[in-house]
């Protein structure tokens, strides 16, 4: 990754995945480019689910796989856990206390997540989410709260999140001068889309990104899923189209 000059940091469902023909076009564009594109998948799926999706859809293996909304990180040829990131996520994390607090809210239905690196719920309203957030703050429980798609509520370690994970990778691997595109479609992508790097909200993006600041670094694509990624890639990197020498 330290040698990367171009890389795509993308959500999976509804962004990289969701239109098979568009994905073929995107990958063909990268194959024809005069540079290699390193891939970072940043997903809300847990690691087993993400691995299954990569296999079932025949997706290119990423250089880095970030799972559970930025709380899990896997790297290398076999996608082994990043011990430093795991330790950072475990510090001050109190999932038991989060669950105890959530049990006081009838409008929160716990999601079945296979580990405790995050705690997730279906919320019945924004009012419930806000009341829960105030309760967590009043109780002094360190956390980061992510609300997306009008119902999905995730409580993460305070230093977690997709944006925090991506910034950690960029800082560690000194990728600040690389050509990057960040891609997403829903509210749990917000913090990585707004890091200040070139970013795209794909055409099928959820309404919860409707109020996203459309600064010069954020492109709103018309095309859906991988088609929107390709549209944005050509917008940000239009001169990078020469063919590889074979």
Concise structural overview:
The chain has 246 residues and is α/β, with parallel strands linked by helices. It has eight helices and twelve strands. Helix 1 runs parallel beside helix 8 (225-236).
Question: Tags for this entry?
Answer:
246 residues, alpha/beta, Rossmann fold, Hypothetical Protein Ta0175, Chain: A, domain 2, 8-stranded mixed β-sheet, 32% helix, disordered C terminus
Task: Give an overview of the whole structure.
The chain is α/β, with parallel strands linked by helices and 246 residues long. It is 32% helix and 21% strand. The protein has an eight-stranded mixed sheet with strand order 5-4-3-2-1-10-11-12, with helices on both faces. Strands 6-7-9-8 form a four-stranded antiparallel sheet, with helices on one face.
């Amino acid at each position: 990754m330290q040698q990367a000059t171009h890389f795509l940091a993308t959500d999976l469902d509804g962004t990289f995945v969701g239109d098979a023909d568009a994905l073929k076009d995107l990958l063909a564009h990268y194959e024809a480019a005069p540079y290699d594109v390193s891939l970072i998948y940043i997903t809300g799926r847990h690691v087993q689910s993400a691995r299954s999706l990569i296999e079932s859809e025949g997706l290119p293996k990423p250089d880095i796989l970030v799972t559970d909304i930025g709380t899990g990180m896997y790297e290398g040829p076999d996608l082994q856990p990043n011990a430093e990131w795991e330790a950072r996520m475990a510090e001050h994390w109190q999932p038991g206390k989060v669950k105890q607090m959530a049990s006081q809210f009838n409008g929160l239905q716990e999601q079945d997540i296979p580990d405790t690196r995050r705690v997730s719920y279906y919320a019945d309203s924004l009012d419930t989410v806000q009341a829960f957030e105030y309760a967590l703050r009043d109780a002094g429980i360190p956390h980061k709260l992510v609300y997306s798609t009008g119902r999905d509520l995730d409580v993460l370690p305070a230093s977690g999140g997709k944006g925090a994970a991506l910034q950690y990778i960029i800082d560690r691997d000194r990728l600040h001068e690389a050509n990057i595109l960040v891609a997403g479609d829903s509210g749990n992508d917000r913090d990585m889309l707004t890091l200040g790097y070139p970013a795209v909200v794909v055409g099928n993006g959820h309404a919860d990104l409707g109020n996203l600041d459309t600064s010069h670094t954020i492109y709103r694509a018309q095309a859906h899923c991988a088609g929107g990624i390709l549209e944005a890639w050509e917008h940000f990197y239009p001169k990078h189209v020469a063919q590889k020498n074979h």
